Amino acid sequence: MQLTPERRRSTRSTRTAGEATKQRLLSAAEDLFSVYGYEGTSTRSIAVRAGVGQPLLSYHFHNKDGLWRAAVGSLFDDFSGLLADRIHGLRGVDDETVLKLIIREFIAFSAGHPQLHRIMIHECAVDGERVDWLVEHHVRPIFEMTIGYIDRLIGTGVLPQLPAAHIYYIIVGAGPTLFALAPECSRLTGIDPVSNETVEAHIDAVLSLLFRVPHVPAQR
């Protein structure tokens, strides 16, 4: 059966509305799971936050577990896709430059998506099947790629002679913590943790510490 132009427009409109609903649910889920954890978040609260009926949540994601996996997977996919595109553009570039870019993109992404670090902290505190799923589906590929660069740069003396895993977790801890603890940071320091200036300064600070680059004051 061939669709009429009116029917095709209606189908596209329905598809667009459905995608918008899914995106609102994913965004609401990311926010609430990052604050209350899996157990403390209900599908009803997610639907209310998204401004949609709860049956639509079940239609798109079946249940809370399906929505949790889709929401967390979406965050990781966004970061992994961004990283893959940037690294692809640096083919043939030295390891130090690539690792610096990985760290830069990780910190910048963390500033815009603090939910990811908060969700990981929640899940690792519980230490259950969801951590297994996170590690195998999303974290391990990033870890193995990053640890390869770290190992090689330790070997060439660019990075300190420390266990590679420790350097990896220094990056994982130092990168997003300022943004995950943004309310504390703003109260203690008076700075805006997610301003462009703060994000860039934090990137520079982490890179300077890891790569032992001396700080050069900006010219006035």
Poorly predicted ranges: 1-14, 213-220
Helix content: over 70%
Order of helices and strands: HHHHHHHHHH
CATH architecture of the largest domain: Orthogonal Bundle
Q: State which percent range the strand residues make up.
A: under 5%
Overall spatial form: globular
Gap from first CA to last CA: 70 Å
Q: How many domains comprise the coordinates?
A: 2
At the first level of CATH, what is the class of the largest domain?
Mainly Alpha
What gyration radius follows from the Cα positions, in whole Å? 21 Å
CATH topology grouping of the largest domain: Tetracycline Repressor, domain 2
Q: CATH homologous superfamily name of the largest domain?
A: Tetracycline Repressor, domain 2
Mean pLDDT: 89
Sketch the major β-sheet: none
Helix tally equals: 10
Helix/strand/pairing category: mainly alpha
Tell me the total number of β-strands: 0
Give the SSE layout:
Blueprint: H1 5-36, H2 43-50, H3 54-61, H4 64-88, H5 95-112, H6 114-126, H7 129-155, H8 164-180, H9 182-189, H10 196-211
Please tell me about this protein's structure:
α5 (about 95-110) runs antiparallel to α7. The chain contains 10 helices and no strands. Helix content is about 80%, strand content about 0%. The protein has 2 domains: about 1-60, Homeodomain-like (Arc Repressor Mutant, subunit A); about 70-220, Tetracycline Repressor, domain 2, CATH 1.10.357.10. With about 220 residues, the chain is an all-alpha fold. Residues about 1-15 and about 215-220 have low confidence and may be disordered.
